[in-house]
Amino acid sequence: MKIIFLHIPKTAGQSIHAALVNTFGKEAVCPARVNDQLRQFSISELNRYQVFSGHLDWSLLDCIKGPKYVFTVLREPMDRILSFYFYTRNQGENLSVEERVKPERQGIKAAFELNPREYFLGGPPHLRNFIDDHYDNFYSYYFAGRRYRCRSELAGLINRKEFSQADIVRMAMDNLSTLDDVFAVSNMASVFGAIQEISGASISESEAEQYRVNVNTKVAARDRLDRLKALGADEVTLKRLQDYCTMDNKIWALYNVN
Question: Residue 152's CB: how many other CB atoms inside 10 A?
Answer without folding.
Answer: 13
